């Protein structure tokens, strides 16, 4: 087996980046820059033994601060590069840290656009230490989408912007549906979701012509009465990322949508000249696009990221959205998604 090949199953975990993890924060400028690490710490806390923060890091997960040797001694098998930056690049300092982690005896997994395997020094460190590298944004080969009807139920999360909680919402829906004894599977489309789920497709690394086909491949026909819960990406209203959002809508062929939104966000992420769209307009645009391959698509609810609001303001924001749109509105993290799942079950009963 090449040291760049997938890992075999270890400790009952079928992914190619076996836990426990050290979460690498590097010099993350803020919490948003560390969103990959934060997602893992939230959804898979039992897999995370600590965090590595460099001297200028402004983010924390509340985990133990460990260096590479300490993390390995604490049982970490893999260091996850838990940061996301513009362009997904690694600077020389970060490369040195990847090598240090490998020399300490850990595997290294990254969701950055710049590949670990593109750095000869990192590859050499993996080889000499008998360790493995995994680039989560290495997309599999997938077919071109054809829009053909396929069996099964699918839900897609969509957003008014990037990083408004689509992954958290999708995972919360899976958790609630499992609690009710329903069959439901989270389908990851981004690096954080892939690390959490142990599988998926990095849809923003797929050539544009193959995006819809990639989602058809990720969520094939199913006849067990269960749901595929597909993690959304980007926003139809974000000039940088609308293309991937549209491909997801067509390939997912969704029976239901959940709209994700952060109420107090002043503008599109990274684009100060573009305000967030009105919720009703955003919802209608997503429905119209989804109807190309799923004419009967419905709205199951709205998921609000109210993390920056006081509890009273959060509750008020949800009430206002419900009154305006006529569907349940909840914060998946602080309120759960029970009423959204209630509507989903009622809409597809029998």
TrEMBL record:
Top-level taxon of origin: Bacteria
Pfam entry (one): DUF1611
Annotated InterPro entries: DgcN-like (IPR011669), DgcN-like_C (IPR035086), DgcN-like_N (IPR035402), P-loop_NTPase (IPR027417)
Domain D-glutamate N-acetyltransferase-like N-terminal: 68-138
Annotated D-glutamate N-acetyltransferase-like C-terminal domain residues: 146-341
Protein name: Putative NAD-dependent epimerase/dehydratase family protein
